[in-house]
Specification:
This is Alkyl hydroperoxide reductase subunit C/ Thiol specific antioxidant domain-containing protein. About 35% of the residues lie in helices and about 5% in strands. By secondary structure, it is mostly helical. The chain has one domain. The chain has a two-stranded antiparallel sheet. It is elongated, with a radius of gyration of 24 Å.
Length: about 70
């Protein structure tokens, strides 16, 4: 088997592996739910009409929010 045949065989096997891997079903993702201090649940990604979701964290002890 020459070099070109090896490359062609490798490319064919790689294409077959890629095609077969797409056929597997993705596992169901867990639903993201936040509970506020009043006990109300919020699901920011539940609505299909939502164009964007913004999370704002305000706490003076939080190093991430202190950067802003």
């Amino acid at each position: 088997m020459n070099r070109q045949q090896q490359i062609a065989l490798f490319a064919a096997l790689l294409a077959l592996a890629c095609a077969c891997s797409g056929a597997l079903a993705a596992p169901a993702k867990a639903k993201l739910v936040f509970t506020d201090i009043k006990g109300k649940n919020h699901t920011p990604f539940a609505s299909a009409k939502t164009k964007a979701v913004v999370f704002v964290f305000l706490l003076r002890d939080c190093p991430v929010s202190n950067v802003y």
